[in-house]
Design brief:
It is a single chain. By secondary structure, the protein is mainly α. It is built from four helices and three strands. Helix 1 crosses helix 2. It starts with a strand and ends with a helix.
């Protein structure tokens, strides 16, 4: 199963901003991309939690840029949904 930024935040009791920051800093397992969406494998997150939440190195510039673009796109979509309500 794959977790969205918001689902991962709920699972870790973090705001989506914190999920984003931790992902960029390399403090979460790397996401996978499904189209233009960042998702985290449940198995990766469970393994990471079991291992004591180790931190990794920062993302490469390309990975950082891609993650930033994907998450900003998701936020824009959510904002547009809020405006139509």
């Amino acid at each position: 199963m794959l977790l969205s930024t918001f689902s991962l935040g709920r699972k870790l009791d973090l705001d989506w901003h914190d999920v984003y920051d931790r992902a960029v800093d390399g403090d979460l397992p790397a996401p996978v991309y499904v189209g233009n969406r960042a998702r985290w494998r449940t198995t990766d997150i469970e393994s990471w939690l079991t291992a004591g939440c180790p931190t990794g190195s920062e993302l490469s510039d390309d990975d950082y840029t891609r993650l930033q673009e994907v998450l900003l796109s998701e936020l824009q979509e959510i904002d547009s949904r809020k405006e139509t309500r």
